[in-house]
Amino acid sequence: MNWIAGGALLMAAAIAAGAFGAHGLKNRLDAYSMSVYEKAVFYHFVNALGILIVALLARVQAITPAGQARVAWLLFIGIVVFSGSLYTLAISGVRILGAITPVGGLAFIAGWILLAYEAWKR
Question: Quick check: 98 pLDDT over 90?
Fold first, then answer.
């Protein structure tokens, strides 16, 4: 997979989600739901940027291509599960979705720890 392109598209999606929240949802969500939505955007943005950084690290051979793929997939899964569940929770109000959010958080943590390992062994 081309993780530079994927990371760039995820960054664009994070910015679009943030703009949608700021302009389209500001009068529709209560303060709690808006804070949940903003947290989803923040983690989406940071980890999409992480995917871009990981792709660039692979290009300069600071990590292996296989390591890049493993780290990028974990960060991507984290974005989908963590941010996705929070986006859905904030908009729908279905609180049970918060139960899967930690799985995405664990994917983020695993991705960043794996990046440290990949850089260390290189």
Answer: no
